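A quick aside before the break. I want you to see a complete sequence-to-structure record at least once, exactly as it would be stored in a machine-readable document. Don't worry about memorizing anything.
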Amino acid sequence: MESKSEKRKRLDAAYIKHADWLYQVLLRYAKEDRYISDVVHDTFLLYYDNMERIDDDTLFGWLYEVGKNKIKSLYKREKEIATGNGTLYSLIAESEQ
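That is the input. The structure line, written in tokens, reads:
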């Protein structure tokens, strides 16, 4: 098991190597860039939490899949809320009945 400082060094190295690339890839899936920095950050936090299960050889693909799924999920939730099908509006509508 890695120490916290070893995990931090591994995270820093991965971030330096892949963060800009991930940002550019997520721009393809995003309508605008307002959420992308947050998604990149969240993706690397998830990587930190799951480092023991992710090989360096598969990190590139893992970051891609997680980042892509996060941005798609974010826009799906935003669309649901905007159309009134999201959790917030659904709860309000149900409470008013």
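Two observations worth writing down. The radius of gyration is 17 Å. The mean pLDDT is 85. We'll return to this after the break.
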